[in-house]
Each structure stands twice: as structure tokens, then as C-alpha cells.
Amino acid sequence: MDASRRGFLGAMGAAMQVKANADDEQPDHQHQLVPSDISLRVKSLESLLVEKGLVDPAALDALVDTYEHKVGPRNGAKIVARAWTNSAYKKRLLADAAAAIAEVGFLSTQGEHMLAVENTPQVHNVVVCTLCSCYPWPILGLPPVWYKSSAYRARAVIDPRGVLKEFGLDLPEDVQVQVWDSTAELRYLVLPERPAGTENLSEEALAALVTRNSMIGVEKVKFPAVESPR
Amino acid sequence: MNGIHDMGGMHGMGPIHAEAEKDEPVFHHPWEARVYVMTRAIGAWQKWNIDTGRYYIERIAPADYLRMSYYEKWFTRNVELLVKTGMVRRGEIETGKPAPDSAKLTPALRPEGVPAVALNRHIASSIEPSVHPRFQVGQTVRARNINPVGHTRLPRYARGKTGKIDLDHGVYNFPDTNSDGRGAKRQHVYSVRFAARELWGDQASTRDSVHIDLWDDYLEHV
Fold first, then answer.
1. What is the pLDDT of residues B155-176, one digit of tens each?
2. What's B156's DSSP letter?
3. Which of A69, A79, B53, B153 has the least C-beta neighbours within 10 A?
4. For the range A160-165, what are the long-range contacts, defined as Cβ-Cβ under 8 Å and sequence gap of 24 or more?
């Protein structure tokens, strides 16, 4: 992990103070004293919220378990593999991603707000959220640190080709790069290109090739899969 | 607000560390997991909406914003909103104990409600025929040059730039007013395609583009 981004945790000693009921004013940046250890502060808040009956600790544990073990990029990979092997499904995915993902059971049928964008030899799609770190949680899980980094958020829109090179993807000049900045409630899934030589693989074997990064659009799916699972 | 969070196009942020972690864990520390799940559990009370939640992260002082990790920002925001909405008092945060007169409530999110939380972000339906779009797919539009001091989802790098409506996503709450209690002001959101050269000048590739999701009120006729 990037130690420089994490090493300051212990030093974090200032929290912003916001004036209540003053939304139309600019925030003042008066600092207040708070315990410096973030893990202690979090523990203290959790026990307060539990004692007040605002949160149920069993629900918190179930949520941790859900995001650590049940929701993650394997969900998205299954959708991609299905689209690769079933052209009718692919058509539905590109036309109404929320409904097509709900078919596989990763979104409620109430409908989420999803768009699937297809990578081809001519068009390469890549997704960013410059304003925060919006990400399709139900199908990719929680975002990796690099996706949330200032560097990615700042650079993906102004220098997408340079960013992709840092991920090892050097695109020819004649390929169109389409960046999607998730500024609203739409969430994006990149449908990567199916690699050559995979004609005889099962849907399950194909899903195993699909990486999280390929579904954000910062790399291609490789076959045979390379050792690094990034 | 023209805040530090509006990062698109900034320089000086360094490399991305794309290969920093081979098997990145979902959470790097147990406290990060607790912050994330507490956020979801207190969100179930619906005392604030997603736009207010984003606004209170943007209000973190710029130097702190850059120094804090993602989940530290969430924690800071949660404390501010718990206090602002009266769910928790500042003194209780400081002592970690409920005030003596504090009533014990029944949590809004129970374990049986967790799977639904993971499957659905509870964004209202975008299908609302009574709200008419101001623009049509294929139309050329300009992003307005506005600089609101409150929350907005119109990034600075798009303001004043001309693009083309590529998709109509349907009807959504308007973040600028929904974030501070002035109402949902529901309206159409479009995927607007901007040529990379329109945004960044000659240094950009002639083929490249950026799609930005923009609300009706952010756009004007050309």
C-alpha cells in the first residue's frame, strides 16, 4: 500500500468544525482538540451510538461481513463473463444495465442506476469520479485506494492516456479514449474486450480472468491471466 | 463550492501507485470497516440525504481534506452531521457516553435489513414523466459558468464548455438545493459528451472525450 498516504494517521489531530444551521455560509476552519488516535475515536463513537440505540452492533458486523466476503469484483466478473458468452444478455446489459444485473441477483429489482459501456478495438472507456469517489458498490464492492486517490481523480480527465500508461496500458493514437466522470447517481461498469484465445473457456473460467481494474477501464483482460490480480 | 474536492484537471498530485498493492484488502484497518458500516447504519435513519453527506465532506478544510484518508473524511463528516441533526450532542462525542437524559432508541437498521442495503442504494426512480427535459439527445449545450458557494456537482473544468447531449438518464434530485434543505427540485440528468480538446486545448488528443453527468439547471442553450 501507499505508505505516504497512510502514514499520517497518527498525526491526524484536527477536525473541521462546522457551524450548525449555517449551510449557506462558507465553513470556518477553526480547529478543535480531539483525541489523536483515529481508531480510539471510532471505537468511542461506535459505543456511544450503540448505547443510544442508534446502531445495532449485529447489523454493523453483518455489514462488514457483506462487504468483506459477499460483495466485490467477483460479482462484476460474473456479469462480464455472461455478456461474453451470451449475446442476448450482452444486448440487455448495454441497453438496461440495472435490469440485466438484477437478473443475476446483484441488484434489487427496484432498479439501480447503472450504465455498462463496452470496450472495443476502436473505443476504450475508463471511469472516474473527480468530485468524490463514486463507485458501483453492489457489483464491484468498495473502491481500491488508487481509485480514491487525488492523483487519479485529478488526472484521469485531463491525461487519461498517461494514467492508463501507469497501469501498463499504452493505447495507440487511433483508439478513442472515452472518460466517464460519475458526477451524478449513475454508476458505470466497463465491459472489457474478451481476450483472444478464450473461445473454448466456460463462463466460469472466463469470469476468473476478469479483473476489477478491467471493469473500471484501466487495464485489459489478459489470457492467459497474468499472476498479478490487480 | 469551489473546493479542494473538485480535483478534475489539477496538476501536482503525483503518480497513481497503480501497483502499490497486489492483494488489496477491502479495509486496511478494522476502524475503516467500522466507519464504513456505521455510515450505512446511521444513514438508515434518513436524517440527511446523500447530497448533504457529500457536502459535509467538501466542507472539510482543504489542508485537512488532502491529509485525511478516505474513511477519516467519512468519520469527520459523520460526527458533524450527527451533531447538526441532533442525533448526538457534541458533549456526548467528547465523553463517549450518552447524556443522562438521552432516550434509548431502537436502531433503524437491523441485521435482517443488511442484504437489502447492499443490493440497493435507495435512489428514487428516475422515471417521472411529469418532469420534462429541457434538452434533447444530440443537442449542443453549454455548461453554465456558475460558482455556487454551496454544494454542486458541476465540476469547474466543465464550466463554460460546450458539449453534446449523449444520453438522457431520466429524473433525479438536484444536489445544489437538495443538499441544504431547499428541496429536491427534480429534473433531468444527461450524459454530456465534451471533446477533450474543448476541455483542455491542443494538448489533448483529437479523438478523446469526457462524458459528464449534468443536471438541466447546469446547462444552457448554445
1. 999 999 999 999 999 999 999 9
2. G
3. A69
4. A160/A126, A160/B208, A161/B205, A161/B208, A163/A126, A163/A218, A163/B16, A164/A124, A164/A126, A164/A218
Distance (Å, whole) CA A150 – CA B5: 9
In the block, which residue shows the cell 438496461?
A: A96
- What is the model's pTM? 0.90
**ipTM value of the model?**
0.97
User: Strands (DSSP E) along chain B, which ranges?
Assistant: 140-143, 162-172, 187-195, 209-215, 219-221
Q: Would you state the cell numbers that stand for residue A188, as one nine-digit string?
A: 458505470
Mean pLDDT, range B102-116, rounded to an integer: 94
Contact at CB, B205 and A177, closer than 8 angstroms: yes
User: Given an 8 Å threshold on Cβ–Cβ distance, is A131 in contact with B155?
Assistant: yes
Cα(B68)–Cα(A41) distance, integer angstroms: 14
Q: Before A224, cis peptide (omega within 30)?
A: yes
Q: Which residues contact A71 (CB under 8 A, 6 or more apart)?
A: A106, A137, A138, A141, B118
Task: List for chain B the helix, strand, coil content (%; round to 5).
Answer: 35, 15, 50
Which 3 state secondary structure label does DSSP give B65? helix
Partner-chain residue, chosen from B8, B27, B59, that has the shortest CB–CB distance to A27: B59
On the question of pLDDT at B29 being above 80, the answer is yes
By the CB < 8 Å criterion, does B209 face chain A? yes
